[in-house]
Design brief:
InterPro entries: AB_hydrolase_fold (IPR029058), Lipase_EstA/Esterase_EstB (IPR002918). It comes from Streptomyces hiroshimensis. It holds the Pfam family Lipase_2. This is Lipase. It is a single chain. Helix 3 links the parallel strand 1 (70-73) and strand 2 (98-101). The radius of gyration is 18 Å and the shape is globular. The protein has helices at residues 5-18, 34-46, 87-92, 118-136, 148-151, 153-159, 184-190, 194-201, 203-206, 213-218, 259-262, 270-275, 278-288; strands at 70-73, 98-101, 141-146, 166-172, 229-234, 254-258. The chain is of the alpha/beta class. It has a six-stranded parallel β-sheet with strand order 2-1-3-4-5-6, sandwiched between helices. Helix 1 (5-18) runs antiparallel to helix 7.
């Protein structure tokens, strides 16, 4: 059957942008311009992953205060630099060894990642965690991810043996149980062949849509694995993970946090919550070191 082009022409970019977690222009507070930040990404990749701000430093050795390195996993259409221009330095300045990977690359598509099959991306995460553990000498890591990057590690934990190498997973607006994309997925499924067409081009997008084969596999097992501590930080203004509660997890050692319960006047939506929100950064620090946690409030933005 011939696929109607006009609806698809509208749907493809809308779906891609809606699932984006870091593809929009990085805010000026985080970088001089998106051009500069993407140049930093290319330069960092060419230098073996080292960026000028001090994270992805493979000579970093975890301290007694922070004994585990932190691995950051970007969102759909993001990369290892753009997504973390606020959080990575925030954690680095607090004494953590911080690392970030690029995953889910498609041939011929530079800088915009997280588009490949999520199960394959989880394999890339597995290899990267081993690389970080080898470089730092740490037995386990803590993973922090935004959007797809907050949910994809669960495949690694559940199916690839990651539970023995990970202490905690903190998801910022993660798409754990699938999204309706504010009804866009319903529209996609009304167009004959649309899901298959989009999935054939960018499987990392349709894997996250409610009803996907990937999500059926993920939802066939418990949300959590024993021995790993989970934190989910969601925003009620999320227009991408809809409903936002679909990001929440059920199981032991789970803490589900609504950003607006910490700061009622924080209006961060899906992208801002993972890229520029310092209230969230403070709560991430609490998740990484709960024994020394301090209250997260609106004032945390200047902390």
């Amino acid at each position: 059957m011939k696929l109607p082009w006009r609806p698809m022409r509208t749907l493809l970019p809308a779906l891609a942008l809606a699932l984006s977690a870091g593809a929009l222009t990085t805010p000026a507070a985080a970088a001089a311009s998106s051009h500069d930040s993407r140049a930093a990404s290319v330069a960092g990749e060419a230098a073996g992953g080292t960026v000028g701000s001090g994270w992805n430093d493979y000579s970093c050795k975890p301290s007694a205060a922070h004994p585990r390195p932190v691995v950051l996993a970007h969102g759909t259409l993001g990369n290892s630099v753009d997504n973390w221009l606020v959080l990575a330095p925030y954690l680095k300045n607090r004494g953590y060894c911080v690392f970030s990977l690029d995953y889910g690359k498609l041939p011929g598509v530079p800088l915009f990642y997280g588009l490949g099959p999520i199960a394959k991306s989880a394999e890339e995460l597995s290899a990267y965690v081993d690389k970080v553990r080898s470089a730092t000498g740490a037995d386990k890591v803590d993973i922090v991810g935004h959007s797809q990057g907050g949910a994809m590690p669960r495949y690694y934990l559940n199916f690839l043996g990651g539970k023995d190498k990970v202490n905690s997973l903190t998801g910022i607006a993660p798409n754990n149980h699938g999204t309706t994309l504010s009804g866009l997925v319903t529209l996609m499924d009304k167009i004959p062949g649309a899901r298959n067409a989009i999935g054939g081009l960018t499987p990392g997008l349709t894997d996250q849509a409610i009803g996907s084969d990937y999500l059926k596999k993920m939802n066939s097992v418990p949300d959590t694995v024993p021995g790993v501590r989970y934190t989910v930080i969601a925003t009620k203004y999320d227009e991408v993970v809809t409903p936002y509660t679909s990001g929440y997890l059920t199981g032991p050692d789970v803490r589900n946090v609504l950003l607006q319960d910490l700061c009622a006047v924080d209006f961060s939506e899906h992208i801002a919550i993972g890229t520029v929100d310092r209230v969230v950064a403070h709560e991430v620090a609490n998740a990484l070191d709960p024994e020394h946690a301090t209250p997260t409030t609106c004032a945390s933005v200047i902390g």
